[in-house]
Design a protein that fits this description.
The structure holds two protein chains of two kinds. By secondary structure, chain A is of the alpha/beta class. Chain A contains 24 helices and nine strands. Chain A folds into four domains: 100 residues, Alpha-helical ferredoxin (Fumarate Reductase Iron-sulfur Protein, Chain B, domain 2), CATH 1.10.1060.10; 43 residues, no CATH class; 135 residues, Rossmann fold, CATH 3.40.50; 112 residues, Rossmann fold (3-Layer(aba) Sandwich), CATH 3.40.50.1860. In chain A, 52% of the residues are buried. By secondary structure, chain B is of the alpha+beta class. Chain B is built from 17 helices and 18 strands. In chain B, the strands form four sheets. Chain B has a seven-stranded antiparallel β-sheet with strand order 15-12-14-13-17-18-16, with helices on both faces. A five-stranded antiparallel β-sheet of chain B has the order 5-6-10-8-9. In chain B, strands 1-2-4-3 form a four-stranded mixed β-sheet, covered by helices on one side. In chain B, helix 2 runs antiparallel to helix 4 and helix 13 runs antiparallel to helix 14. The chains are: A alpha/beta, B alpha+beta. At the A-B interface, helix 4 of A face helix 12 of B.
């Protein structure tokens, strides 16, 4: 597509990068077909091609973001289905990140919006505060109807019924491999996940150790930066990312890492892109090193191999696998989870329209509750249509989103893999043989 | 640069009243903020752009009827839009026009496998029509390259084809009936579930009429049982002309593959760099797909191999597995995206007699050198539907003009050898001014008289298809309209 930037504008590296991305777009419109918000709203403005056009216009004019542009960019889930579909390789993720940073820098949101975003940033990436907030939400839930804002009601509704105690496994330490050591890995323990569900990290550690991995848990690990990056707060995101990089690489002091393992795929997409985020910074090399080492847990295990199967319990259970967007689109990991689950003895079924987002998308379900609920309704309907005994997903956000709308138990892929290879039966699976 | 008529000042001056009336007619469906209408200023031919007065996104035939009737009353031009994937600018607006978009009209209304038909709203995408009947073992045959995203309404407007139309025909051969809203809001039903209706074949007139006769809101389409199997071969040649001659020989021999696709060296190289399909580095290649039962496939492929041997192919690669078939098609399906990596492109759509392929390809090569712009060829060779892609740099002033001039020369060449300007993309605005190269004034007059019958005030997509000077007297005859210069 033709673009219209001045040479001065192109001196800014971010603008130069966006220009390059816009020039690869041929405006063919293929991306509209797989965009969840376009499926729901049927308006070009809420499609990737429309957003690309809005962003192009906003950046070329160099003007502050306007209310309409912000509305349509805010509605983007960043699910990146458009990148999977795009025949021309348009890097929508970098483009929309730039647009969000521009919006954050030039647009003053209504006060409620600002307050809400401030609150999310102060709470979610801090497990201690998040736990407190979840406990508070439980108490406040009966009064939800009194809340003036649909987004606040969505937050209350999202809070889980039970909050697990802190897992000491998430403290900084090194777990030895069980049996012969085949790899040394660092586990990125996530932030919100630690408050919502401690089973996922526990299962991951057990599974990796049994597969022959020495597992390093970094000291005092915080947030990878994904949360604020998607809000356009690039400086905040980079501060958090910088800290994460330092803590992850600190694990290399006692021996080189073979991989950095992530079991929250939303974070994985961001961490794998650290190289780009810091390409013009002093820690470019370190950031690229971290990105290069990062693997989703299923991606890593597909290469390393699963521990031997130890149980017959749960064998043949019908598992509907929900592919998190950050895995299938953000990281292009499509077959590994299903392959591993099949090898572990489960029967995998795939719902219709597997490419569509469940509407969780980080904080999207809190900021855009209406669109998010509609996507959740559609996703749960397609999952339940496969008559599953269990639903598995590789991202805590999707698990919370889907789990809140179905009676079918929802677990993380690693919990099933751990169970099948000698770990405990995941909570809430009920009477599945 | 393509000229568009001066917008009707009397419409622009009534803008607020018109938008208010549209909102009354279909609440919640009107877009009129200039920051938003801008996104609708073009389709997949992004070189030509003009934001509309407003965009409306109705959900039902009744809503379309109300909108059309209102625009008719107010004398407001209307531009229909399917999914906005036109490569000919078919859904490009004018500044005084209301765009009626079909994107919210995606329902499946009826599936009747026994009668081999499906009835859908016309905003439904081509591929999702097949998706709706896949479970019952059927498919919808026309398959434009944009089938993932393009709308059935647009397919009908442009009489779209696709790789598989060599065997199954284009849209008109697979369209049984439509519900269409005329410019004055009248709803008409054309055709019938058996594909036959009494009287004149008005359905045939509507299919390919580029949104100038009415807006199709519902379509009844022929669905076919999926074939038991299909297998492609890849045949590589050391010259484009030889590959073209081989296509002609296959067609002459009476073999009927489902598809014969052609790619030349610039296209093959770009595709390899982008999609890594593992294609040989050759001057030209054909992908020929046949279908049927296993013995039928073997028999057809043996015949094709025999014919191809006569043209000294550099390689004859038969697919032995699903994965190999996928890889043979991978490059072809990635071709347009890959070409986008080389620069901006204009995608032409001329159709020629298959026997003229070698000559036309040689001449395109000469023209490409004369203009100093590279041309890559990727197209449906079986039915002579060429898609030369002219690579240029849209950010370099003057480059687009040269690319357009080269495109015009190539299309004139297609007409000279007995072909026509468009195979499946339609005339739109892209080829509008070349219509005189193909048709005499009397031909064009006859075509315009057909539009007179359906849309006497020339409000519907009127700046397309006919050169502006040819259609000026009709467009300017609208009551209350300011004249334009053309």
């Amino acid at each position: 597509m033709q673009t219209n930037f001045t040479p001065e504008q192109l001196k800014d590296p971010a603008t130069a990068r966006s220009n390059q991305i816009l020039r690869t777009c041929v405006h063919c419109g293929f991306c509209t077909a797989t965009c969840p918000t376009y499926q729901v709203l049927g308006d070009e403005l809420d499609s990737p091609r429309g957003r690309i056009y809005l962003i192009k216009d906003m950046l070329e004019a160099g003007r502050p973001a306007d209310e309409k542009t912000v509305k349509h960019i805010d509605r983007c889930l960043s699910c990146l289905a458009c990148m999977t579909t795009c025949p021309s390789g348009v890097h929508y993720m970098h483009l929309v990140d730039h647009a969000r940073a521009h919006i954050e820098a030039t647009y003053r949101r209504p006060w409620r919006d600002r307050a809400l975003r401030w609150l999310l940033k102060q709470v979610i990436p801090h497990p201690g505060r998040f736990r407190l907030a979840l406990a508070g939400a439980k108490l406040a839930r009966p009064f939800a109807r009194l809340m003036p804002d649909a987004r606040l009601r969505a937050m209350l509704a999202m809070a889980p019924k039970t909050i697990p105690p802190v897992s000491r496994n998430d403290d900084g330490q090194t777990f030895p491999a069980i049996g012969e050591r085949r790899a040394r890995v660092a586990l990125m323990i996530g932030c919100a996940q630690r408050a919502l569900n401690t089973e996922i990290n526990d299962a991951t550690i057990r599974l990796l150790r049994r597969a022959g991995c020495e597992v390093v848990i970094p000291e005092k690990f915080g947030c990878c930066g994904a949360l604020t990056l998607h809000m356009g707060q690039q400086d905040d995101a980079k501060t958090r990312a910088r800290d994460s990089i330092a803590r992850l690489l600190a694990a290399e002091r006692d021996g080189a890492l073979d991989a950095i393992i992530i079991n929250t795929s939303g974070c994985g997409t961001t961490v794998k892109d650290y190289g780009h985020l810091f390409e013009n910074d002093d820690i470019a090399a370190e950031a690229a090193r971290v990105s290069g080492l990062t693997r989703d847990v299923t991606e890593f295990l597909e290469g390393l191999g699963l521990p031997d199967r130890a149980r017959t319990e749960g064998q043949g259970a019908r598992v509907a696998y929900h592919s998190a967007c950050s895995l299938q689109h953000g990281q292009q990991i499509k077959s590994a989870p299903g392959t591993l689950l099949t090898r572990a003895g489960f029967r995998i079924v795939e719902p219709a329209d597997p490419h569509l987002c469940c509407g969780s998308a980080g904080t999207y379900n809190l900021l855009q509750p209406e669109l998010s609920s509609e996507l959740k309704r559609r996703k749960v309907a397609t999952l339940e249509a496969t008559s599953p005994q269990i639903i598995a997903a590789g991202n805590i956000g999707c698990m919370m989103q889907i789990g809140g709308a179905t009676d079918v138990p929802v677990v993380h892929t690693v919990q099933l893999l751990d169970w099948a290879t000698g770990g405990p039966r995941p909570d809430g699976l009920g009477a599945i043989a | 640069m393509m000229q568009m008529p001066e917008p009707d000042a009397s419409v622009l001056s009534r803008r607020e009243a018109i938008v208010a009336a549209l909102r009354d007619a279909v609440p919640g469906a009107v877009i009129d903020d200039p920051a938003e209408t801008r996104v609708y200023e073009c389709d997949a031919l992004s070189a030509y752009r003009c934001a509309p007065l407003a965009v409306v996104l109705p959900r039902t035939t009744d809503e379309v009827s109300r909108l059309m009737s209102l625009c008719h009353q107010h004398g407001v031009p209307v531009v229909p839009r399917g999914a906005g994937t036109s490569l000919a600018g078919g859904s490009m607006p004018t500044a005084d026009a209301v765009v009626i978009g079909l994107a919210r009209m995606t329902e499946v209304l009826e599936i009747a496998p026994g009668d081999r038909l499906i009835r859908v709203q016309s905003g439904r995408t081509n591929l999702s029509v097949s998706g709706a009947v896949d479970g019952q073992g059927f498919f919808y045959a026309p398959d434009p390259s944009s089938q993932l995203a393009c709308a059935i309404g647009g397919n009908i407007g442009m009489n779209s084809g696709g790789a598989h139309c060599l065997k199954y025909g284009v849209t008109t051969n697979n369209l049984l009936a439509v519900t269409m809203v005329l410019m004055d809001g009248t709803v008409v039903e054309l055709g019938g579930p058996m594909g036959e209706a009494g009287g004149l074949d008005l359905l045939g007139v509507v299919c390919g009429s580029e949104g100038q006769l009415g807006i199709v809101t519902e379509a009844t389409l022929r669905i076919l049982p999926k074939p038991p199997g299909a297998r492609p071969v890849l045949i590589a040649f050391d010259s484009s002309e030889t590959a073209g001659a081989c296509v002609a020989a296959i067609i002459r021999a009476g073999v009927l593959p489902v598809a014969i696709e052609f790619m030349d060296r610039p296209c093959i190289r770009a595709t390899e760099a982008h999609a890594h399909a593992g294609y040989p580095d050759c001057a030209a290649l054909l992908i020929v797909e046949v279908e049927g039962t296993a013995p039928e496939i073997d028999e057809q492929l043996a015949l094709i191999r025999d014919i191809a041997q006569g043209f000294d192919p550099v390689e004859f690669r038969e697919s032995g597995s699903e994965d190999e078939s996928r890889r043979i098609w991978l490059g072809r399906k990635s071709a347009f995206g890959a070409m986008g990596q080389l620069g901006d492109y204009i995608c032409l759509d001329g159709t020629i007699p298959v026997s003229a392929l070698p000559r036309v390809l040689a001449r395109i090569e000469e023209l490409s050198q004369d203009y100093g712009l590279s041309v890559a060829n990727v197209f449906h060779a079986g039915d002579g539907n060429m898609h030369p892609l002219i690579i240029h740099d849209a950010n370099t002033p003057g480059d687009l003009d040269r690319a357009e001039a080269l495109g015009a020369d190539i299309l004139r060449l297609c007409v000279e050898v007995g072909g026509c300007l468009t195979g499946e993309h339609g005339v739109g605005i892209e080829k509008r001014d070349l219509m005189t190269a193909q048709y005499t004034p009397a031909d064009l007059e006859a075509q315009m008289r057909v539009k007179d019958v359906f849309d006497p005030r020339w409000l519907l997509n009127a700046a397309k298809v006919f050169p502006l000077d040819v259609s000026a007297s009709r467009r300017n005859a609208r009551p209350n309209r300011g004249r334009d210069a053309a």
